[in-house]
Amino acid sequence: MSANDMVPDGFHLVNAAPGFDVHMGNIYLKQVGEKKVLGFRVRECHLNKAGTCHGGVLTYLADMQLVPLEDQISSNNFHFPTKNLDIDFIAPVPRDAWIEIEADLVRETKGTLYSHAVMKVDGRIVVRTTACYHIAK
Ligand SMILES: CC(C)(COP(=O)(O)OP(=O)(O)OC[C@H]1O[C@@H](n2cnc3c(N)ncnc32)[C@H](O)[C@@H]1OP(=O)(O)O)[C@@H](O)C(=O)NCCC(=O)NCCSC(=O)Cc1ccccc1
């Protein structure tokens, strides 16, 4: 394992769902105080032709923002279809970067989860995202 493959202390592997998730690479979770933070290592297979992390990969990660919020959701549903996802690519993410995703549950209504998140590399915000998820009855 090279230094670039290292998973920072305290992060534990999240079991990938079968299907598409398996192809995206490992996602990790860490408890930080009362919150959980997601972690992801950018590999060569995640790069675009400019040599930085592909926007589709960052959008996939943005759609993972409910994972660190699961303990805060009162609905017992196991799947929340995405109704809306907005994303700002604020700065390019280089190969081998370790991305940390910090999410907040803004509100849970009868039919919708509202959340937002930022992605950071070395403490600097590289992505901002907001999302709404459907709570099926
Ligand atoms: C260049 C610009 C677009 C605009 O910048 P502005 O607003 O004018 O502001 P500013 O110039 O201040 O820069 C802001 C920060 O960026 C940093 N920085 C800038 N240029 C470079 C550089 N060449 N290299 C390194 N860093 C650079 C800069 O230092 C600063 O960071 P700092 O304050 O030092 O920490 C910037 O927002 C950017 O690169 N965003 C990321 C775009 C991106 O990765 N998109 C996704 C991939 S595309 C895709 O795959 C398509 C797709 C999408 C969806 C689905 C499918 C496919």
Architecture overview:
By secondary structure, the chain is mostly beta strands. It has helices at residues 20-24, 55-62, and strands spanning 12-13, 27-32, 35-41, 82-89, 98-108, 112-121, 124-134. The protein has a seven-stranded antiparallel beta sheet, with helices on one face. The longest helix is centred in the middle third of the chain and has 8 residues, at 55-62. The chain is globular and about 45 Å long. The termini are far apart. The model has no long low-confidence stretch (mean pLDDT 95). Phenylacetyl coenzyme A (FAQ) binds at residues 48, 52, 54-56, 59, 89-92, 124. This is PaaI family thioesterase.
Short description:
The protein has 137 residues and is mainly β. The protein has helices at 20-24, 55-62; strands at 12-13, 27-32, 35-41, 82-89, 98-108, 112-121, 124-134. The chain has a seven-stranded antiparallel β-sheet, with helices on one face.
Instruction: Please estimate the helix content.
Output: under 10%
Molecules bound to protein: Phenylacetyl coenzyme A
Q: How many beta-strand segments?
A: 7
How large is the share of residues in beta strands? 35-45%
Radius of gyration: 15 Å
Briefly note the structural class of the backbone: mainly beta
Low-confidence stretches: none
- What distance separates the N and C termini? 46 Å
Output mean pLDDT.
95
DSSP helical segment count: 2
One letter per element, helices H and strands E, the order comes to EHEEHEEEE
